[in-house]
Design brief:
Layout: H1 4-7, H2 20-23, H3 28-34, E1 41-44, H4 51-61, E2 66-70, H5 76-89, E3 92-97, H6 104-115, E4 119-125, H7 129-132, H8 135-138, E5 142-145, H9 151-161, E6 169-170, H10 172-181, H11 186-199, E7 204-205, H12 207-213, H13 227-240, H14 244-257, H15 260-275, H16 282-296, H17 302-314, H18 320-335, H19 385-398
Parallel strand pairs: 1-4, 1-5, 2-3, 3-4, 6-7
Helix pairs in contact: 5-6, 9-10, 9-11, 10-11, 10-12, 13-14, 13-15, 14-17, 15-16, 16-17
Length: about 400
């Protein structure tokens, strides 16, 4: 039996729920479709955010020949058939669900055809592509992140769906509850709506009926429908503010949601953005934690997550790295290249170049920045044990 979520899947961009940062007016995917041209891409985001729908809308709007495969279910022979079709027709769009599960054999046969444009790949995944997808595939694709839908997004979609169900009447508070219970997953909301519809002899969906079917606590969603982003923000800010209790609390909230990917991403960012040179060992420690969690799975993964989050929160903090690179990027954005590379360091065999390892303490005074910014400082050390040690060595060499 075909589920409601599949029956009402949009075929036009204007019918897509949410994701205005991608499909809104003058946004990237809208403009690609308007210009009649797309590139290989990876769509990633939480379940029920419209990845498969968006892929179908793209090929439908552009009237493109396409095939839909699953990296887990479909065999190498299925991918071979798509390649032969691409050779026959000159071009084909291949939509691959669960692309992070694609094995090396399938990747190897696809890569040449993605490169020569015969296959336009649209990969779909709930996992972080920067961590889960092979770099060879990833480097040939544009990556677009889909966000969890807000309560208002889901209500908008449900209001359009209710009239499509014969004789359906849905109370306002019941609709609101379905939207909240979905936790940002539109497919989940549609499934609950459909179960409620067929659970009533009169097809009248009430709040009491919805709660009798699904009485789980609402983990996500507030009146503004943006609690998910507030949790993620609070998680990082608690660690940045060195509050271990708050960090553990928000970690628990995110674990309860089941959003491990966002936990992994935030921890990885925090290790370099907020802790940085104050404790450089945290980057590799976070990576080791993520690999351990992937191996263990839940519920055991909560243990290394808790240990690592506590250490992140209690670690000394430094943002000197992000400040330095942002300052340099800002200068380049304002003034362009800001001058030529000094002649004595513009090639390996330049006789004017002084090789630092030939001098005591492996340091020699010479200019490295272009002339017109030779005195600019981008790196401003924070006051912490590790950076103080680095600077002490650096100053001693210069003396």
């Amino acid at each position: 039996m075909e589920l409601l979520a599949d029956k009402i899947r949009p075929t036009k961009l204007s019918d897509v729920i949410g994701q205005k940062h991608l499909v809104g007016k003058n946004k990237v995917i809208s403009n690609l479709i308007s210009n009649g041209h797309i590139f290989s891409m990876i769509l990633f985001g939480p379940p029920g955010t419209g990845k498969t729908t968006l892929a179908h809308v793209i090929v439908n709007e552009l009237n493109l020949r396409y095939r839909l495969l699953n990296a887990v279910i479909n065999k190498k022979e299925d991918f071979d058939i798509v390649i032969e079709e691409a050779k026959m027709y000159g071009e084909i769009v291949l939509i691959v669900d669960e692309i992070h599960r694609m094995n090396k054999d399938k990747q190897d046969i696809l890569l040449p055809y993605i490169e020569n444009g015969k296959i336009i790949l649209i990969g779909l995944t709930t996992s972080n592509p920067y961590y889960k997808i092979n770099p060879a595939i990833r480097s040939r694709c544009q990556i677009f992140e889909l966000n969890s839908l807000t309560v208002s997004d889901i209500k908008e979609g449900l209001l359009k769906t209710v009239p499509l169900l014969p004789k359906c009447k849905c109370d306002e508070d019941a609709l609101e509850r379905i939207a909240y219970l979905s936790s940002g997953d539109y497919r989940s909301a549609l499934n609950l709506l459909e179960v409620s519809y067929y659970s009533s002899k009169t097809h009248h969906i009430t709040l009491k009926l919805v709660e009798s079917i699904n009485n789980k606590p609402v983990i996500l969603g507030d009146q503004n429908g943006d609690n998910h982003y507030q949790l993620i923000s609070a998680f990082q800010k608690s660690i940045r503010g060195s509050d271990p209790d708050a960090a553990i609390y928000y970690l628990a909230r995110l674990i309860a949601i089941g959003d491990l990917d966002i936990i992994y991403r935030r921890m990885s960012v925090i290790a370099y953005e907020d802790i940085g040179l104050a404790n450089p060992s945290m980057g590799p420690k976070v990576r080791a934690c993520i690999e351990t969690c992937e191996m263990l799975g839940m519920p055991e993964a909560r243990i290394p997550l808790a240990d690592t989050v506590l250490e992140l929160a209690l670690s000394p903090k430094s943002n000197s790295g992000i400040c330095a690179i942002d300052e340099a990027l800002s200068l380049i954005e304002r003034k362009g290249s800001t001058g030529d590379v000094p002649k004595h360091i513009n090639s390996e065999n330049n006789p004017l170049y002084k090789y630092p390892h030939s001098y005591p303490k492996h340091w020699v005074k010479q200019q490295y920045l272009p002339d017109n910014i030779k005195n600019v400082k981008f790196y401003h050390a924070c006051d912490n044990k590790y950076e103080n040690g680095l600077n002490k060595v650096n100053e001693e060499m210069k003396k």
